[in-house]
Amino acid sequence: MKTFLVVDDSAVVRKIARRMLEGWSFSVEEAGNGAEALGACDGLMPDGILLDWNMPLMSGLEFLEQLRRQDHGRATRVIFCTTLNDAANIAHALSAGADEYIMKPFDEDILREKLVQVGLLDGEPI
Length: 126
Description:
The protein is α/β, with parallel strands linked by helices. 42% of the residues lie in helices and 19% in strands. It contains 5 helices and 5 strands; from the N terminus they run βαβαβαβαβα. A 5-stranded parallel β-sheet has the order 2-1-3-4-5, sandwiched between helices. Helix 2 (34-43) runs parallel beside helix 3.
């Protein structure tokens, strides 16, 4: 079973994403900020991470930069999920190592398409 880590300071967003991911047979863990997420990755590196940008203690971008510096953190697929939608933020996230980028609010079709694109779900992109 593939594993997924949902990192967002909103419990509602984590719950919605968890429900979608579990529906596609992922085993899902949650973290409320980047520091918690790093701790979770020390235990078991997930196959995928859904990552918010603006969080307390450690932003999503800071987390991603630290994750990608780790040898075991390079293979994990990271999808940024945020309200920051300008081209500069998207370019910054992708250059820091994000595999994809989706905007909040998102729905099941959008998340599924991104998972297919990064190779975590079988199927054709919508």
